[in-house]
Amino acid sequence: EVQLVESGGDLVQPGRSLRLSCTGSGFTFGDYSMSWVRQAPGKGLEWVGLIRSRAYGGTTEYAASVKGRFTISRDDSRSIAYLQMNSLKTEDTAVYSCMRESGGYWGQGTLVTVSS
Amino acid sequence: DVVMTQSPLSLPVTLGQPASISCRSSQSLVHSDGNTYLNWVQQRPGQSPRRLIYKVSNRDSGVPDRFSGTGSGTDFTLKISRVEAEDVGVYYCLQGTHWPRTFGQGTKVEIK
Description:
The structure holds 2 protein chains of 2 kinds.
Chain A: E1 3-7, E2 11-12, E3 18-25, E4 34-39, E5 45-51, E6 60-62, E7 70-75, E8 80-85, E9 94-100, E10 105-106, E11 110-114
Parallel strand pairs in A: 2-11
Antiparallel strand pairs in A: 1-3, 3-8, 4-5, 4-9, 5-6, 7-8, 9-10, 9-11
Chain B: E1 4-7, E2 10-13, E3 19-25, E4 38-43, E5 50-54, E6 58-59, E7 67-72, E8 75-80, E9 89-95, E10 102-103, E11 107-111
Parallel strand pairs in B: 2-11
Antiparallel strand pairs in B: 1-3, 3-8, 4-5, 4-9, 5-6, 7-8, 9-10, 9-11
């Protein structure tokens, strides 16, 4: 069974950094591109970014709202995708979920609150 | 960025009756590989999102056949043939053809 589990969400002050993890199981993690999506409280879904599999260069794509501040990476040996978030803003407050595009699998999400 | 526009944003429906949600994109979603990467995602209250439909009309595993997707180019529709209580939630279209990926605003389906 494919499972995606996010972790690392926390309360942080504006301007600080936070790293989220997405751990996959039930599939060969390294074979798949992985995305991050977020949902601010009471709002709709917003795509954050994606990292391609190594077979496709392991390259990344980002939404304009996070480009230059957020970085996605992966450790296929541990079946983990990371979302490094720097220079956090209050508007980054959201539940962050990872998603495997192929098959449409989503994790449960982890809450990031950016507040002073 | 490709703008995805859904309508209506709120959809009160009667149990057992059909429902239809429209999604229009600001650019064609036909990829250079010939595929059209338009997905429909369901989010039930208090739950994580779940993909229902991919590439316009393909149902994901376990999705009831009362859900169907149609459309082409820039105009797409999700239909529920007979709404059941478990269908309450917010439905989003998501385009996977262009970077960055973009979602529609969401359509809230509720029972009258």
